[in-house]
Amino acid sequence: MPLNLKHLLLFVLLFVSACAPRASVAVAPVVAGPVAAAAGFARFHLGGLEVTVLRDGGFVTPNDGGDFGSQVGPAAVGRLLRAAGAPSDRISLSVDALLVRMPGHLVLLDTGLGPADHGVLPWSLALAGVTPDQITDVLITHDHTDHVGGLVTADGKPAFPSAVIHISAREWPGMQKDVSTKAIAAAVATQVKPFDPGQPLLPGVTAIPLYGHTTGHVGYEIAAAGQTLEDIGDTAHSSIVNLAEPAWRGGMDEDPAAGAATRTHELARLAAAHELIFSPHFPWPGVGRLEAKGDGYMWKPGPSG
Ligand SMILES: [Zn+2]
Predict the structure, then answer these.
(1) CA–CA separation, 188 vs 283, rounded Å?
(2) Which regions of the chain are under pLDDT 50?
(3) Ligand 1 centroid – CA 71 distance (Å)
(4) Domains and CATH numbers, the chain
């Protein structure tokens, strides 16, 4: 069949498109930082307690040998990510918080990114049927802004005006000095009650010292009717990288060596006890258990089991 004008035009178009620079179809570069999420909540029971996970947002960091696997490099981290079916050029994290209803107390564990970084925790709280002034206690794992940002409203006022804010006595001085948190600390200072870990803070709630991510970083163990749940805070960030290789260091920890040592020790303890875990940065809703795999662990999501 002779080549008519229509065929010729089609051929030219195909040729031009085949010769187009590759940049036009390249994968978008990683944009690091907080990312927005839709509000939501997930609810389950621990003993007789009602436990609710509150969605707040997300966070993306590039796989560049900084935040993860700083002593092994991005190629080794990328292999773990690819094996788990995740993109190998970035590590994507959730940002979530926990709400526990117990007799006489309505307890919020961490407060998310806050209004400065588009945290949606207030909307998730509303969907869960709770108003901010009903919160009696806020337990802070550490002073990074993805955990304390939500202590204030968009106009800088206390977001939980009726609550006692519990924070490790090793963490509070730094939160008052750090440029990223000192305005938040000043806004809520009269509500803050610093504590030394180890003593029960509320009935069945004990702070566990897990230093390394920050100077005074703690987790919280909640016990009810023979069942336990530990909010591990930022003891681990990636359910892929940190669980497969707990001893790998990363720049997310203020003291990377101490952070890796604490992670290695605490994850071993939690796996051996088959203890239920909440991790603010694991895939939504961040509740599950550890199962041994090789030198590390696999994440088994879900509150049962
Ligand atoms: Zn964090």
Answers:
(1) 30
(2) 1-26
(3) 21
(4) 32-301 (3.60.15.10)
